[in-house]
Design brief:
The protein is α+β, with helices and mostly antiparallel strands. The chain contains 16 helices and 28 strands. The protein has a 10-stranded antiparallel beta sheet with strand order 1-2-9-10-11-12-19-16-15-14. Strands 8-7-13-18-17 form a 5-stranded antiparallel beta sheet, with no helix packed on it. The protein has a 4-stranded antiparallel beta sheet with strand order 3-4-5-6, with no helix packed on it. Keywords: Hydrolase, Signal.
Length: 682
Amino acid sequence: MITQKVKGLLAFLFLIILSTAVVSQENGWSISTTNQQNYTGIVAANGRIGILPSSNIFKTKQIILNNVYDKESPLGVSRILQGMNFGNLEVEINGQLLDNSVIDNWTQTLHMKEARFTTSFTYKNLATISYSIYALQNVPYAGYIDVEIQASEDIDLKVTGKIQTPEEYNSPNSTFRILKDLETTMPILQTVAKSRLNRHTVASSGTFIWHAINSTREHQRPKLIHQKVSEYDNRLSFEKKITKGENYQFAWTGAQCTTQDFYDPQTESERFVIFNLLTPQKDLLAQHKNRWKDLWKGDIIIEGDLQSQLDVRLALYHLYAFSREDSNLSIAPMGLSSQNYNGHIFWDTELWMYPPLLVLNQGIARSLVNYRSDRLEIAKKKAINFGYKGAMFPWESDDTGEEATPAWALTGTFEHHITADVGIAFWNYYRVTKDKTWLKERGYPLLKEVADYWVSRSSPNADGSYTIKNVVGANEFAPNVDDNAFTNGSAITCLQYAQKASTKLGLASNPEWSKVAKNIVIHKFEDGTTKEHSTYDGDRIKQADVNLLSYPLDIISDKATILKDLKYYEPKLAEEGPAMAQSVFAVIYARLGDADNAFRLFKRSYEPNKRPPFGALAEAATSNNPYFATGAGGMLQTVIFGFGGLHLTDEGIIQKNPILPKQWKKLTLTGVGPDKKTYVID
């Protein structure tokens, strides 16, 4: 019997299928759509800024600034900044302002290979227009909108570029200046303001670029008209007559800097815009594309199932877009697509997004672990403040490294497995890279502190065992329990890894690490099924917890127990839970040689979460908060560590028992590990 709730979900999924039916697919690299219904855009990002396009022509929904925070309210926690929006243009032809109501043949395409988001359309019989949005990889604080207008008749064109400042900003100062150096002139539209509670100064600059002329010579370019609608709405316009048959090209570029990264963000934002202005378009965009070409050396190629190929590439595109190896920054659950979860850093990085990146791009992986290393001293202070030794990492982290979870959320005070998750990620980085200098300077100092934390966090029992009391586990539906399976399992693993790291460096380890690791309790039901915590009695669960002891921890390794745990906990997953649990089950089934169940759960881990028209992932089947980078990390793990058979071991990355679902003809993993190996499964 189908419940009303299930009927509603099926109807919702059917709507998604209908909405995405118009999506066209090209060679596994591009996704195009002519559908504007129930629209969710795909962000253009470069690890520093995220530019979220709109279905409305020449409109950008928002710009997100990575690792730039201010308090959400006077009594609230930090929240990542929504930047000033330099991504909106207005285009008029013969006095008509163009919008979606007056155009035809609207099409949008995400070109994943070169991270280009293109919109094209026609206006009456007068013009065909196309523009592409880039978040420049080579100039990471800048965006670039490249416009092409093919005139079918003589037309009068007017274009307006804008810097629009969100109302939450304070004291904006909007200006327009023409900077000069000898004969070179550089027109700069600019707004400088304070973030919502005045923590940061934010500066955004913008200008037009004309490719066909030397646009730095004032007499050669169209006359520029400055209009300050208000201090929150700063505009720069030009007009141009275009003759029939002419292909007119220009660009609008903007840059945004803050006091988080620059002592003088105002002049730095100007310099980036000037750099883009004076660098030939061909060279500037070639640099951007070449950097993406390097990123795609780590790739996943699926033959025989184009839709899975596109889904997997879109997931990998987002992880690459939300990070950069030269930043020492991490990735929030929603990356640079929104302010959801306040842009904070959770276990989502270490457990879900980090492992695929560790396999395919060690430079980005290094940035993610260094983010934690840079905040080690703050974590050590937190441990002291809660009566423990070593280092205690926050459940939600921001630029400071202090706890950023809202005080009302029990996770911030009690979800302590994050500290073990960080330690596990650190040893895995060494396992893959064999970088002994990094291990000595960054890896072991952190592993030592987190191991000391788990010794102090564990309570001895009369029988010689150890209990970890009063925690929120991975299953957050069960707060303040004792001996949560994943918390205890991750603590055991972290303590073992700290011992291995000390041995690798020829250092003496704390004997308590081994003693506690060998005796931390993992509870069982009478039939041998692993209990999620000491008093667990079969309640529904939010996400995988016990099953993480099979993968990725390898604490439970016998097939009978693995299967028993799988069959017991899969039916208990809540419908509104996040996507990653299905991914874990899929990996485990693949490693057990069950390709059918693995593929079933692989698809279940993300297909219900896809949102039209491009397939952006929401956190859950019943939510609408894309893009959920954590879910992307989970589905990629199914492919890499499940079907691909890759394992992280003390000998590095090895392959054991890969398996293909019958829906695929071949799976190729490229750029794997420091040696950039290729693995082919067919």
